[in-house]
Specification:
- The protein has 136 residues and is of the alpha/beta class.
- It is 38% helix and 21% strand.
- It has 5 helices and 5 strands.
- It has a 5-stranded parallel sheet with strand order 1-5-4-2-3, sandwiched between helices.
- The protein is globular and about 35 Å long.
- The model has no long low-confidence stretch (mean pLDDT 94).
Length: 136
């Protein structure tokens, strides 16, 4: 399952995804991962949440980021949910260029029984149809 927290810059997406990650520890039996592009929110997460600064790994496109996630899942079979903050900033692209990424992520989610929650900076009025089905 994929869920997308959406809205314009300053609409509270990061606070919402941090709160969800901290709550996920209580709900999920597997490992909870939080991926961001820097260390700014590392101390806002409970210590049980595994924080990953993807900015340190040079993941600068949707394809590279997909490979990064696949590597995490290949290394750790106990991951049950992955939170990704500032997704578009992390992959350095516009939302229109992520349709293939979301299709592949959906397949990965089903195959490995992993939930993904991403925050995406996009205006609801002009969001592409392919991403609207993941909006929460």
């Amino acid at each position: 399952m994929i869920q997308v927290i959406h809205g314009k810059k300053g609409s509270g997406k990061t606070k919402r995804i941090l709160d969800q990650a901290n709550e996920a520890i209580k709900e999920h039996k597997g490992d909870v991962i939080f991926i961001d592009d820097d260390n700014r929110y590392m101390y806002d997460l409970r210590h049980e949440v595994r924080f990953v600064n993807a900015g340190e790994y040079g993941s600068d496109s949707p394809e590279m980021f997909f490979g990064f996630i696949c590597g995490m899942l290949a290394q750790n079979f106990d991951i049950s949910v992955i939170f990704v903050d500032a997704f578009l900033k992390l992959v350095k692209t516009e939302v229109e260029n992520t349709e293939k990424f979301f299709a592949r992520l959906d397949q990965l989610s089903e195959k490995h029984n992993v939930q993904f929650v991403l925050s995406v900076n996009c205006d609801d009025a002009i969001a592409p149809e392919f991403i609207k089905k993941y909006f929460i």
